[in-house]
Design goal:
single chain; 380 residues; alpha/beta; Rossmann fold; 5-stranded parallel sheet; 17 helices; globular
């Protein structure tokens, strides 16, 4: 079992200072396992699984049941009972406070909306994804890149077993999980869009172009993309907009957040085929980008591009520092004119070129080639 001490520590810190903590992330990323580990270290702690009929029956009168509990109360799959948010507001406002609440969920828009409307000022969000390099250890980056970070895929006995799990995850998410989130979209329509988006991975989001290819409207494509993003399966990386006297790109970039799911959606059969696939560079970019954002957070993360062709894969404002990151699937990446323009225009303190080699080295005064093994060097 891979221990996830950083996530565990973030949850403990949040529970100490907040009345309600919401642990959010995609299905099957390990939230329930983490919550049960947390429960073992808290005394007393009561766990409710809202997918379990017995627990649902217990909560038929939530104010009476939850109001009598002390210590810590954990509610898994909270999005299945959104009416509980109003009850939690009342319970969290008690003084003195007999119990703190940890709620888990997979559909961020509904949960964030419910928390914002009912639990404003009372809730702290902790986000959780699949495994990252700090958990699997950097030397296993090739397996993490190919299989992705979902625990059942990464820990599978073989690559074939991992792919079987990914295919089943895609099917069950489309056919069952969406309905459980209260989202009524035809599975076939969303599957076609998801596969098409895999081919647009690491490219600008053009809803009109995707709509023409799928014979769907612009608004339908945008709405369905937001559904996938809200379930933590897609990332829409926003562009950086600043009055810098240049015509800038205004559309977000699309990424399948888990590289293993990307490879499954692209139907790439094995690791060797990935290395010769036209999307290998885009796959590397998305994988390495997610690993960087696990270190820095994504609240101040953007890409930058101008209509004249200058671009930067990732622009970060971290602790007041302006950092640029490029992702190149080459062990000997070079400096481009676009990089120098990004440094000058965005006033970057440093620009890193993340590559799959084992060495980290300076390329210029404020440009470094950064090995995937040494990503923590990005943090100032």
């Amino acid at each position: 079992m891979i221990k996830r001490k950083q996530v565990e520590q973030r949850i403990h810190v949040a529970l100490e200072r907040s009345r309600v903590v919401a642990l959010l992330g995609p299905r099957q990323c390990g939230k329930t396992t983490m919550a049960r580990i947390i429960a073992q270290s808290l005394t007393p702690a009561t766990f409710f699984d809202l997918e379990n009929r017995i627990d649902l029956h217990k909560l038929a009168n939530p104010m009476m049941v939850l109001g009598d509990l002390k210590g810590y109360v954990i509610l898994d799959e909270i999005q299945r009972q959104p009416e509980l948010f109003a009850d939690l507001r009342v319970l969290a406002d008690r003084d003195p406070l007999p119990a703190r609440f940890l709620i888990l969920g997979s559909a961020s828009p509904d949960i964030i909306r419910g928390c914002s409307e009912s639990l404003a000022g009372r809730v702290e969000f902790v986000f959780m994804s699949g495994f990252d390099l700090s958990e699997t250890l950097p030397e296993f980056w090739k397996s993490l890149w190919w299989r992705g970070g979902f625990p059942p895929a990464f820990l599978a006995g073989s690559d074939a077993d991992a792919r079987a799990w990914q295919d089943n995850f895609i099917r069950t998410f489309l056919e069952r999980d969406l309905r459980g989130m209260g989202i009524n979209i035809l599975p076939l329509a969303l599957h076609r869009l998801w596969q098409m988006q895999a081919h647009y991975h690491a490219q600008l989001f053009n809803a009109s172009e995707l709509g023409r290819a799928l014979a769907e409207s612009y608004m339908t494509v945008k709405r369905h993309t937001d559904v996938l993003s809200g379930a933590f399966l897609m990332r829409q990386l926003p562009p950086w907009r600043e009055n810098i006297g240049k015509r800038q790109v205004k559309s977000p970039k699309l990424y399948i957040r888990d590289s293993g799911l990307l490879h499954a959606l692209l139907q790439i059969p094995n690791r060797d085929a990935l290395l010769g696939h036209p999307k290998v560079g885009a796959s590397w970019e998305g994988f390495a980008l997610e690993q960087v954002l696990r270190l820095t957070g994504d609240q101040n993360a953007f890409f930058w591009a101008t209509q004249s062709g200058a671009e930067l894969d990732l622009f970060l404002i971290h602790q007041g520092n302006r950092i640029g990151v490029e992702f190149k699937f080459s062990e000997t990446p070079g400096i481009t004119r676009s990089m120098r323009e990004a440094i000058k225009t965005l006033q970057l303190e440093h620009l890193y070129i993340v590559h799959p080699g084992s060495e980290t080295y300076p390329l210029d005064e404020n440009i470094s080639g950064l090995s995937i093994l040494h990503l923590d060097s990005i943090l100032p």
